[in-house]
Specification:
It is a single chain. This protein has one domain. Helix 1 packs antiparallel against helix 2, helix 3 runs antiparallel to helix 4 and helix 4 runs antiparallel to helix 5. It is elongated, with a radius of gyration of 19 Å. It contains five helices and no strands. With 200 residues, it is mainly α. InterPro entries: CWH43_N, DRAM/TMEM150_Autophagy_Mod.
Length: 200
């Protein structure tokens, strides 16, 4: 039996595959209809104009649902493995709350497009990525506290590595966005979907 056929193990796999597919399908649709330039667009740009906006929105809403289901299963798993440890139970509840907030942010991103309601879209991105990173931190701490009885040290190190990678990606995204919207590269960049080769 494959690992994803055991219990609810399919949920994290379904979340990753479905989320990746939502970005790929909306990107392909936007490129095929010449709504964006093919070279490294913002993910949000691929979900700005119909019909890819509709596809992007519904697929990300399903991703948010899969994320909530995955985080709830993780919450129940940690609770079942540590019913007597109050510190772990408290952290676990905090983790579930943060995870659900992150999924809500994904719904905001899906339904409030960058070119239409930019600031609400940014709030959704902060919830998804910022609060999501804090959720990852909580899960890393839980893995540390649950070793060696429940987790091996390898699980802790894998989660820590993923957390550091996520945080470095968030910093890179933030710095790039600040530089892009600093005014050095033109105005109305939020609405811009195509680049002229003569521009900076």
């Amino acid at each position: 039996m494959w690992w994803f056929q055991q219990g609810l193990s399919f949920l994290p796999a379904a979340l990753v595959v479905w989320s990746a597919a939502s970005f790929v399908f909306s990107y392909i649709t936007a490129i095929a209809l010449h709504h964006i330039d093919p070279l490294v667009p913002y993910i949000s740009d691929t979900g700005t104009i119909p019909p890819e906006r509709c596809l992007f929105g519904i697929m990300l809403n399903i991703s948010a649902f899969l994320g909530m289901a995955t985080m709830y299963v993780r919450y129940k798993q940690v609770y079942a493995l540590n019913p007597e440890k109050s510190k772990i139970i408290k952290l676990n509840k905090i983790g579930l709350t943060l995870g659900l907030m992150s999924c809500f942010g994904l719904c905001i991103i899906a339904n409030f497009q960058k070119c239409i309601l930019y600031y609400i879209h940014v709030v959704g991105a902060c919830l998804t990525f910022g609060v999501g990173a804090i959720y990852m931190l909580v899960q890393t701490v839980l893995s540390y506290l649950m070793q060696p009885e429940v987790h091996s040290k390898d699980i802790f190190w894998i989660r820590l590595t993923m957390l550091l990678w996520c945080c470095s990606s968030i910093v890179s995204m933030f710095v790039s966005s600040v530089v892009l919207y600093s005014g050095l590269y033109g105005t109305n960049l939020v609405q811009k979907l195509h680049w002229d080769p003569q521009e900076k």
